[in-house]
Structures are given as C-alpha cells and as structure tokens.
Write a structure and sequence with these properties.
single chain, 2 domains
C-alpha cells in the first residue's frame, strides 16, 4: 500500500509538473519577408548608429533559443506568403496562392483553431490588411488568396475573439467587410482611442485604423505620423482584450507585414525601421512574459525571405550608418517626386534639394560621380525628356528618380539585392519561455505550429 501511494504521488507530481510547463499564453510573431540577413543587417546598423562595429541586439534576437527554418512550398522551392503562412499556421505544405487548404484543396486547420478548441481566447493581428495572406492563413480556407469576399466570410465563421490590422485590402470591399463583421457581433473600433472606449463592453473586437487612413496597410514606420496606429499599440490592445475575464490563457499571432513590402522595393533603410518596429511590438509581449515567465511562450519567425538581401557590395566594407540619411520610404519619396513633377518647371537643382532633404545625399551621404550621374540621368529622362516609366513591384509603383535614389542608397550603405521578389533562403526562429527549447536547431516551417501546440498542450 505504501508503495502504491508513493507511485501515485510521483505520477501526480509528474502530471502537475508537466502542466506547469505548458504555455498558457502564446505569442506567435511572424516577420513577413524577414530572413536571417534582415535581422543581422538591423543589428549591425544599430551598432553603427552607436559608433562601433559589431551588433546591437534586437530584443527578439536576444532570446535564449534560436534556430532556422526551411520555407519551400509544396510546388516550388520559393514560397509565396499564402503557402508560407499556411505552413506556419497549419503545419501543412500547400501550393503558392492557397490559404488554409492543402495541395489537394482540402481544408486544414491552424494552431489558432487548436487553441480556440482548447478553450483559449485567440487574436489575429497584422500591420497590413486583416484579410491579407498571413493573417488569413490562420482562419480562412480558400484555394486562392485573392478571394477576399470568401476570406471575410471565413473570418466570421471561424469566430476568433480579436482581429486587428489596417483594414481590408480594397476600400469598397472593406466597407462591406466591416459591415458584415459588425453584423456578426463584433465591436468595430477605429483607432486606439476608440478601442479604449469600446473594449470593456465588447465580446469580440475588430480594431482597424481611423476613417480616412489607407485601408490596406499601416504607414511605414519611417513615414509614421503622431496619430498613426502602430503594431506595438495593436499588440498592447490585443493583450488587454484577450486577458479580460480570462483564466484559461490566449493565443496571439502578430504579423510585421511591411518588412516584406519594403524588401520588395529593395528599400534598405525602410526595411530596417520595419524590423525595429516589429521588435518594439515584441517588447510589449516580452514585458508580459516577464510578469508570467513560467506560463508564457514567445516564438518569432518569418514566412520567407524577400529581396535576397546581402551584406556587402564591392569591397570589404559596410556603411550602414549612411541609412540614417534617409528620412522617408522610397514609396513616399516617389509621391514627393510626382508632386514636384506636377509643378511643371522643376529643375535639377530642385531635385537635388529634395534628395538632400529626404535621402541625405551630398550632405550626410557623400556620392561618387557615378552615383550622381545615375540620379541625374534618371531626372533628365523623366523630367527633361518627359519619358516617365514607373517601376512596379508587388505593392508599389515607383518614380524613376526614386528608383535611382534607392539604388544609390544601397550602394552607399554597401548592401546588395538579388531580387525584387522572394527567395528560398532560411528564415530565423527565436523563442523564449515555456516550451522554448522545442525551437532550437534546424526545422521546417511546418514543424513550428506543431511544436507550439505541443508546448501549449493543444490537441493536434
């Protein structure tokens, strides 16, 4: 009898210990387009800002557990965000363009759904549209990522507790989507102030930008105005809402979506600010972790790398400090150049004033004769000869002089790009907290949600 009692006590201890190690609170951060070099470049840039060579660590890159993941899709070595998001959400490979379905177009379910089934509250948030590929991978089941009406129907049907982002991908459809979501019982808050006034009485929440903002994305961090909503504020609001009257815990996915957009533009200075901006959101989660260290898991990764960013360009030097000269994104610079064109009589000297102010050229960023010639030739072709050919990437159309300016800035900083699209490079994985050791070493992207489920005790 004594032996049986000892055995039962030991078994009970093992069960209690296992439960104590489970992640009650899960944060899943996805830096869209954020490869290993996006992280490394940002840390080296921060060190150069401090006047030294080396790295100044980001919060998430200082986490005690690190690994790397492969990202290929079911049909190609290079994934798109829909297939990459589906792999990170559901643990299934699929074809490029698919959301929440496998290669046979059968519905597959995300780790967020598993969390909801386990009684946790669930939040899905992003710095871009709520119906964009990465967030949609966690709640939608569609054969094509562009099926926005159906994606919104899936959002409602899945019924998570908190959704947040800029808005929706098209203005007209966005109005319809917001109305449908509100009719389904969600409280709609436009901006942080409205969230704070409505959150207490809301059962479910949709948080988006204020009226009049661009609906498909938050502004780049480098272009942000004082009243613009931020990813850190979204993360704070999500924690606040998901913690309300909740003893069972939560699952929160946060996407830094515009790292990818800036990489598609090969806009190095804007990329680094976006990585830092996501790190600021992660700091909010880390502060929560410090209050609940034995019950919280934070995992940070990416769906793929974008741009083929390389550290080094013609010689054994880097000059990332040059990126300090850039005061706005290439996208915003392009708009300013269009406005200058509309004045009707802009001169090269006018353009030099604009480029000095917004890019630091000839002031904090010295230019070679060849670099100035590249800028002047672009001006001559598009302003003097009036032959204006915009360069198109996945998310922007850029003025010829702005294209030349971002090339010159990359040259000045000594960084290179292999593509304006995605690459097949490894992506980083960082983790801290309950179950973090599961994320060490090399893995596939499909392993990550399964390991989160294991750490949190969700049924898989």
């Amino acid at each position: 009898m004594k032996r049986l009692t000892s055995f039962l006590l030991l078994a009970l201890f093992v069960i209690v210990a296992a439960q104590a190690q489970r992640a009650k609170y899960v944060f899943y951060f996805i830096g869209d387009g954020m490869g290993l070099n996006q992280v490394n470049t940002t840390e080296m840039y921060q060190a150069e800002q401090q006047g030294r060579i080396g790295t100044a660590p980001l919060q998430f890159a200082s986490f005690p557990v690190a690994g790397m993941a492969t990202t290929y899709s079911a049909t190609n070595s290079i994934t798109d965000s829909a297939a990459g998001g589906t792999a990170l959400a559901t643990g299934h490979k699929t074809y490029n363009g698919a959301l929440g379905v496998d290669a046979d177009k059968e519905a597959v379910y995300s780790v967020a759904v598993r969390a909801k089934e386990a009684g946790r509250k669930v939040g899905i948030t992003t710095s871009v549209g709520v119906d964009h590929a990465t967030p949609a991978s966690f709640y939608a089941h569609q054969p094509d990522r562009g099926m926005y009406d159906n994606i919104v129907d899936d959002l409602i049907a899945t019924g998570f507790d908190f959704y947040a982002g800029s808005g929706f991908n098209t203005k007209d459809k966005g109005v319809k989507a917001i109305a449908s979501i509100a009719q389904a019982g969600y409280t709609v808050a436009r901006g942080i102030d409205e969230y704070q006034s409505k959150a207490k009485d809301a059962e479910k929440m949709l948080l988006i930008q204020q009226e009049g903002s661009v609906p498909w994305c938050l502004p780049y961090a480098i272009d942000r105005q004082a009243d613009d909503m931020t990813l850190a504020q979204i993360t704070e609001s999500a924690i606040d809402f998901l913690s309300k009257d909740n003893r069972k815990g939560f699952f929160l996915m946060v996407e830094g979506g515009k790292i990818d957009w800036a990489c598609h533009d090969n806009d190095a200075a804007t990329v680094l600010r976006e990585v830092i901006d996501m790190d600021n959101a992660i700091k909010v989660a880390y502060a929560f972790y410090q209050q609940h260290p034995k019950e919280t898991l934070i995992v940070v990764t990416a769906d793929h790398e974008t741009g083929g960013l390389g550290l080094g360009h013609q010689g054994y030097t880097l000059n990332l400090k040059a990126l300090d000269g850039q005061q706005q994104s290439a996208e915003a610079l392009s708009r300013a150049i269009t406005d200058l064109r509309k004045s009707g009589n802009a001169t090269w000297e006018d353009m030099k004033v604009l480029l000095t102010k917004q890019m630091g050229f000839w002031d904090t960023v010295p230019l070679t004769w060849e670099q100035e010639r590249l800028l002047h030739d672009a001006f001559d072709e598009s302003f003097t000869k009036r032959h204006v050919v915009f360069t198109e990437s996945l998310y922007s159309r850029t003025e010829p002089v702005a294209v030349a300016a971002r090339k010159v800035m990359s040259q000045a900083a000594k960084v290179g790009w292999t593509t304006g699209d995605h690459s097949a490079e490894y992506v980083p994985v960082f983790a801290i907290g309950a179950g973090a050791t599961l994320f060490s070493g090399k893995m596939d992207n499909t392993d990550i949600p399964k390991r989160i489920a294991r750490a949190a005790g969700y049924k898989w």
